[in-house]
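Why show two proteins at once? Because comparison is the fastest way to build intuition. When a single record is shown, students tend to memorize it. When two are placed side by side, the eye starts asking what differs. So, the first record is below.
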Amino acid sequence: MLAAPERMDYWGRTAVHVMARYAKMLINTYYQQASEYNYFAGCSTGGHQALASAQYYPHDFDGIVAGAPGHNRVALNAAFLWLYQQSHQANTGKPVLDRDDLAQYHHLLLAACDEMDGQNDGIIENPAVCKPDYSSFICANPEQTNCLSEDKVSRIKRIHEGPVDPVTGRQIYPGFPIGSEFTSGVGWSAYWADPVDNSQPARADFWRYWVFEQEDWDPWQFNWHSDWQFATRKLSPRIDATQTDLTSFFEQGSKLLLFHGMADPIVSYTDSAVYFNQLIADSAWPEKSTSTPALLYLIPGMSHCGGGEGTNYFDPFPALQHWVETDTPPQDIDAVRFENGKVLYKKPIHPVNN
């Protein structure tokens, strides 16, 4: 990447735009006519690409699905670094938390908050209203087992809180939500260290090569004010997809549908909610008072793009296509619980802004 920095811009901005151009050419050549409608759907980095398309190439697509978007890319990588620092011992890189701790903590959370929605189903329906008494999770003596040490509870709370710039006081990235800690028996442990070298944080090479261009970069020396400011100045204009004025996209009648699992341990659903609310406030479109060309669906208990303890599959594309081609906004879209290739049940998910 350092030898060819233009590849960074291609990844962060133009790849899908170029793909769309060639795809339309192929369609035109094969069918001897242009495509009537053009769509893009992606999740995770694909969700990032989806939002970049709407923001920077608003005329490429008539409808876009952005799932669990990692669009706030520099901040998201900072969140992985924060997760590593809270779950590992400073300087040595020795793990302080393990999956057994996450399982124990998840059990304690369910006991405190599962039935807040009136159902004992192993799912925290609304993580935002779960306010547990963390002091009750702390072991009173070493012989106790249904509890955690005070140090571990403090670290877990900091993971939920997320990193903050210590000078400005501004939130760098939202904390990972309650209920995401042990999703699908993995949770936070999927991204709290490099899977090949557990002494390093996940995405360490992002900081080592993209940001600082230093082979010997030390994750424990990261300054959460000056280094964070440096990283955003250098890379956010090139790879983040956080522009909230989508007027150009909406003015042509294009539609945007976002979705996010509320137990996502990799990309915080609250980041999508914050982005969505801001784009509604900052964008203009025809008949703004009577219609909304963007919708957000939040799926309780679902992990990153799918999976989780509740409904584990959500496909909003048919609803988006119907919306674009008939101008009929979707309302409820079913999330599905799949096991062994069979549908166990469905749950209607209502858009958060309707």
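Second record. Ask yourself what differs from the first in the token line.
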Amino acid sequence: ETHKILLEVRNMKKLNIGECIAYKRKEKGVTQEQLADYIGVSKASVSKWESGLSYPDILLLPELATYFNISVDELLGYSPQLKKEDIKKIYNELSHEFAIKPFDEVTNRCEKLIKKYYSCFPFLLSMDQLLINYSILAKTEDIKREIFQKCILLSKRIKEESDNITEIKSSNTMEALAQMLLGNSEEVIRLLDNKLIPYSGEDVMLINAYKMQGEIDKANEVNQILVFNNVINMLRLLNNYLSINIMEQVLFEKIYSQGIQIIESFNLNEILTNDVLGIHIVAAQGYLMHKDKEKAICALEQYVNIVCKIKFPLKFKGNEYFTKVDKWFEDNSYIGTSTPVDETTIKKNFAAAITENPAFVSLREDEKYKFLVKKLKRKLDE
């Protein structure tokens, strides 16, 4: 505790302890002289503290904090933990900065914030996600690798220090994602091998527990969110399954058909997720490998039509089927492997998926393809 206080005292200028003392003193309705008498110092000392000309002795910090009924951290204006709203605000600010400022400048700010809130594990998780999302902007592959290594270190810290099982699971997933981006497939398998376990039914138990408590609305909300998660996960797995079986034409067709059925059954075209869009891109690539240009164009048309229905500015919401996921979206939109980045970058990625994809080079002189590209760009330039 003494070591912690010493570190905090070094940062008093940054933390504006004088302003805090003045504010708390006035809030308590006492004079500088009354505070001085209680602490056992001169009125001039209190005046100098409040004006920033000097600072309290380290041994007086606990006594001052006790007098104002606050922690030493609060006295120093320092909060090692952030609320969800604060984390989301910082995430969104940095996300915007990545779109308009030099990459190095923003990553330097990220590092400073990580050091400041090194014990706020939800914040570290959000920084993991942010850095991975924007690693694509790094100038060199070496810089990308450095970012992924930093993300791995952050994830390991959370797993070692946190006692929250959700944070530990999320950090393990983030570590696996960073390892995957580094090409370390053996590490990914080691980290995620425990995923291949039989279904435990814990989600149904949670729903039934809420029902037993008489919280039917909550049970309904949780059930709907879990259905949504499972539907999106199924679509994500089908997307990967489609890619793995890209040369098995019969199976390929069946998988793509199943993906479209899921999208249509749950009206997922109304919900912005990478998986709804991605399956059409993978299908178009596959059809070109099968030498079926017409079907490839049809798949790209599906992609473009979905993007053109998206309303900007982006707002995450459910649909007529998933009516209770909006708040869940809002609370969790800055963390997770599918977290979107800023709007400018999202628009660029929407266009790049077909205009810069090397798989579609052979289509560049095709009139239908050029029409789709024009339609897409017109929508994204609005």
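One difference worth noting in the second protein: The radius of gyration is 27 Å.
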